[in-house]
Amino acid sequence: MNTGVSQNDAVSRESEAAMRGKYGRRLAGVAVLVFGCLVAISALPTVVAAGTLGTLSLREAAPRPAADPQPASALIWSPEVLSGGDRERYLKIFAAQKRADWKKADKIAATLSDKRLMPYVLQERYLNPRAKAKYAELKAWMASYSSVPGANKIYALAMKKKPRKAAAPERPTAQRFRQPAHAIYSVDDGADVVNSERFAKVDARIREMVRDEKAADALNYLKSTSARLALTDIEYDKVMERIACSFFIENDNERAYKVANEISDRHARQVPLADWYAGLAAWRMEHYADAARHFERLARSDTVADWSKAAGSFWAARAYLANRQPARVAEMLEAAADTGATFYGLLATRQLGREPRITWVEPKLDRTAYEALIADPAVARAVALAQINRRDLAEQELVRAHGWLDPALDGALIALASTFDLSAVELQVASAANLPPLRPRNGEIAINAGLFPVPDYRPADGFRVDRALFFAFMRQESKFRPDLTSPAGARGLMQIMPGTASHISRDTTLASANKDKLFDPSYNLTLAQQYLETLMNSAEPRGNLFMLTTAYNGGPGNLSRWLDSINFKGDPFLFIESIPAPETRGYIERVLTNFWIYRSRLGQPLHSLDATASGDWPVYDTAESQGGSLSLR
């Protein structure tokens, strides 16, 4: 096939790689510390989203609409790498290829001055079945562009077409990820570090039993000679911690306390969450002195993250108040508030009568930093892609480039991503930037705005649910990636399951042939808005945000069963902590935290935070109206 452009016109893989050199009327409870029975300490939630997206898979999204221009006060010049002429030529090339008019595309391509987007021109063509790409073309593409997003698709096609005796094509360049700067602190116990094969085998068996709520069976198994001899003392107590959690979930509070208390006496530092379960079990039995002791021990641990410290501190304050020790309450609330923008930290801050300490600085891009960024070929390609309104591809380029760029450019990269409304990139970069999150600072890096970006996505029928709530869910569900598919098959910004979408829309094709429509941001948010309204109207009281998030993550059926079966004594937070599904417990905490922080960023009242801090159910209230209003009937 004649493309009209030589592969040699591109920046080579080798030269590109060479250029790449993280506190009412009663003291409220708190919720959801951890992932409990089934998740290890290292998986505790953090307010900063992970810089990578774990096992979620990516697909090629439909082109996103161009963002509105950034206000002149924020940016008085336009970042661009393509001339106006080349921009128009690329638009015409892609339009011609959409019609499979290869000759027209080739003719225009031959007149390009800047050919940095040719990898995408060729990639789009070769992946079109009507183009009938040859193996030699695919192999040549891989030789020059193996680091370009989408290389895995070209490689797969090349391997499918490769003649038996032909040399294999270059493999796609592995993506490099930067770890989140605000990682969970873990203890190095030398030989007792939990990484042994024998531990994994015993732990897997225990996980199965506690998942089936068979804590007694799990305890008997663990105490058997073979299982006990296979584990070190610390490994044994780490597995026992799961069993303590399971006893608590099963409402066997005496055994939950006994097991957790014994672990705490032996290995409080190495197995710190034993104090959490001991405290919860003691609280449920109204043994407040014991509860306070364990919660405070967790709060003072040097081996847990801020979210756990905040939870321990907040529940210790609650237990001290219940035990008529008011002198200790303020001290523990201050400790919780000191953790900043965690779920319990925000509650403690509000109970102390203060506003959340969050400084919002909009990102600004200066020319010097911009020039340093576009010295990287991938960043330059991303800017060019944004110029031709292919923000989906620009986002993929910057997500990939982030792993290779100098961390000193994080602030500039956040600003560049904000300029083009690439919220997923803002979040990823800010999550990895080596700065304390959401604290007052004198620095110029706008990390807070990056951690909680404000994208331009909107439902087709306008907002009836406030943007803050949408953003809170989006940040947790997809990290603002419209092109995500979860391992379970949920799709798009709000991670809607095709079956749920079919039910909401009464369009059965969404569960089958048309499920990819859920990748369209506007359509995804339209269905999600209908679903959020349905869930809020069915909650008790109406608009109950704890119930909303529980149902969205765990399903309305599970919510109904848990409300009937859990012994939460009318305490909203004890309800959350007693939910059998560990993922849902953490999910509620994180989405509510996101919601309150977005309310702060958008300058909106925090009524639901006040209600939560007072120990009531948080109820949604509308703070803005765009294109309609939500009616809670």
TrEMBL record:
<keyword id="KW-0812">Transmembrane</keyword>
<dbReference type="Pfam" id="PF01464">
    <property type="entry name" value="SLT"/>
</dbReference>
<dbReference type="GO" id="GO:0042597">
    <property type="term" value="C:periplasmic space"/>
</dbReference>
<keyword id="KW-0472">Membrane</keyword>
<keyword id="KW-1133">Transmembrane helix</keyword>
<dbReference type="GO" id="GO:0004553">
    <property type="term" value="F:hydrolase activity, hydrolyzing O-glycosyl compounds"/>
</dbReference>
<dbReference type="InterPro" id="IPR008258">
    <property type="entry name" value="Transglycosylase_SLT_dom_1"/>
</dbReference>
<feature type="domain" description="Transglycosylase SLT">
    <location>
        <begin position="462"/>
        <end position="565"/>
    </location>
</feature>
<dbReference type="InterPro" id="IPR008939">
    <property type="entry name" value="Lytic_TGlycosylase_superhlx_U"/>
</dbReference>
<comment type="similarity">
    <text>Belongs to the virb1 family.</text>
</comment>
<keyword id="KW-0732">Signal</keyword>
<comment type="similarity">
    <text>Belongs to the transglycosylase Slt family.</text>
</comment>
<protein>
    <submittedName>
        <fullName>Transglycosylase SLT domain-containing protein</fullName>
    </submittedName>
</protein>
<feature type="transmembrane region" description="Helical">
    <location>
        <begin position="27"/>
        <end position="50"/>
    </location>
</feature>
<dbReference type="InterPro" id="IPR023346">
    <property type="entry name" value="Lysozyme-like_dom_sf"/>
</dbReference>
